[in-house]
Amino acid sequence: MNDLTKESPLGTYMEYGKKGELAYQVCKDDGSVVFYPRAVAPVTGSPNLEWRVSKGLGTVYATTVIYGKDKPPYNVALIDIDEGFRMMSRVEDMDPMQIKIGMRVKVCMHPAADKQPAYPVFTAAQGTK
Amino acid sequence: MNGHLKRGSVAVVGAAESDLGQMAPNTSPVDLMAQATMRALDDCGLKLSDIDGVFSAASQVRQGPMPLCEYLRITPRYFDGTQIGGSSFMALLTHAQCALEAGLCEVALITYGSTQRSVSRAIATPRDYNYFETPYKPLLPISAYALAASRHMHQYGTTREHLAEVAVAARKWALMNPKAWEKEPLTIEQALNARMVSHPFTVRDCCLVLDGGGAVILTTAARAKTLKKTPVYVLGTGDALSHVSISSMPDLTVTAAARSGPQAFRMAQLKPSDVKMLSLYDAFTITPILFLEDLGYCPKGEGGRFVSDGAIAPGGKLAVNTSGGGLSYCHPGMYGLLAMIEAIRQVRGECGQRQVKNCDVALAHGNGGVMSTQCTVIFGSQATV
Asked: Would you tell me the crossing angle of helices B88-101 and B336-348 to the nearest 10 degrees?
């Protein structure tokens, strides 16, 4: 049983992030992949959640490009990670309008700054799933 | 739940907007609720003291019905402040029906007010920090719907022209509604070439950001018959939710309207083709496309092609958002109540130039959050009960 007075799901996730790792959970009762991190698994309600580290490869599921008034256009995407969960992120180091659904991407950790902890972003990867 | 609610047991007897558009400085959301409430009472001939159930939601009013009750000094027997975004008012209507059927109240007021244009959206609707989304700076709610549009385009070949069709249809209807904010025609080319906001959406794919509010008054079918106007009956309702953050939406091309719609139709004992007019929550041009699919008006993926060639514009094959919708009439942050008011007016036959012929059944579908909550209400005339 998790002890929320000692350790929080997000806190543990962020510790992995500090090491450059994208972590997720698996419900040990039914084997389902759980993301975002939780104290209790959805559906089963089980507290038996095991932490795992993703290989960091995924596929763009949906993408948008935001045109702000005073800054260059930037990407926001939903990424389907190979281990079986989806997350919001962005694909960096390319023209945001060239980011296409189905593109393979690889995680890298955006470094922590000020109050913002490290968070995962993606760059284009070779190959297909 | 709806299996136990009775088709036609309650009716809308009063409906009104507050002032819409841009309010004078320091107007409050509760000023707009109070104004709309008095107009809705006038519409049905009831008095403030008749109201014994108050149902209210507003992003700027955290305590639900309390501020309005204080303002008008009413002490309802029953009250509810369910806040699930723009669809709150359809859900509140279901809750009002429950309360009326159970005898917990006899005259139910549903009301809304917003001054989001005056105070800015950021202040009217502050967002919680979400570690899994906020760092990426999505322009919410717009980018959530843009992501859904991108997926629909990829999966089903929907185009930006299809999205523009929705905006142009709304504008054509708005030009027949004296209360609509937009007064100038809009072409497909203008919509496509407008300022890009969150691809594939230009500013013309996004709803208006205005001040406004409204009020609807319901009572039992028995009492409704004694009042000023012909009652508009609640034939069916359905509520469904699926997620709160867009990154947790199971499939960005399918909304929970695929559950709320069938619930409402089952209760109403009607099918989609029985409906003469639809108010489909159009916060963004993709939403009517998704709802036409999910509510059963075309197969999944065909929504873009369905709206082509002016199909939902005046003179088209299906009357959708005849007020001009959130895109061209008024969107005060949470649009659900105004969507219902137009459907009610169509059943009453009060819509003048834009009136849909023989509109005995109208559907109002509400959307809340980022496609998170979906609530459907079907209204019918006396003849349908």
From this structure: 60
* Cross-chain residue pair B199–A64, CB shorter than 8 Å: yes
Task: Mark yes or no for CB contact B148/A10 under 8 Å.
Answer: no
Task: Determine the distance in angstroms separating the CA of B30 from the nearest CA of chain A, rounded to an integer.
Answer: 33
- What domain range is B275 assigned to? 139-208+236-384
Q: Dihedral sign, CA of B193, A74, B254, B330?
A: negative
> What's the residue count for chain A?
129
Residue A126's pLDDT band, with cuts at 50, 70 and 90, is confident
- State whether A62 and B133 contact (CB < 8 Å): no
The answer to whether position A18 is within a domain reads yes
Q: Is residue B100 helix, strand or coil?
A: helix
* pTM for this predicted structure: 0.97
Would B316 be classed as within a structural domain?
A: yes
The total of structural domains in chain A comes to: 2
Domain contains A28? yes
**Structure-block tokens of residue B368:** 């809340």
User: Domain end: A23, A38, A53, which one?
Assistant: A53
φ, ψ of residue B58 to 5 degrees: the values are -165, 135
Query: Of all residues in chain B, what percent carry a pLDDT higher than 90?
Result: 95
Tell whether B80 and B143 lie within a shared domain: no
How many domains does one find in chain B? 2
Q: What is the pLDDT of residues B33-77, one digit of tens each?
A: 999 999 999 999 999 999 999 999 999 998 889 999 999 999 999
Instruction: Give the chain B residue whose CA is nearest to the CA of A78.
Output: B247
- Compare CB distances from B154 to A14, A64, A101 and report the shortest one's residue: A101
What percent of chain B shows pLDDT beyond 70? 99
Residue B269 φ/ψ region, left for φ over 0, alpha for ψ in the -120 to 50 degree band, beta for the rest = left
Give the whole-angstrom CA distance, residue B224 versus residue B221: 5
**Residue in the structure block whose two tokens are 């049983």:** A1
pLDDT digits (tens, 9 = 90+) for B276-330: 999 999 999 999 999 999 999 999 999 999 999 999 999 999 999 999 999 999 9
Chain B hits for A110, CB-CB cut-off 8 Å, are 135
Interface test with B, best of A24, A34, A88, A92 (most B CBs within 10 A): A88
Q: Which domain covers residue A47, as residue numbers? A: 9-53
| A79 plus A113 within the same structural domain | yes
Which residues, in sequence order, are bridge partners of residue A80?
Answer: A59, A86
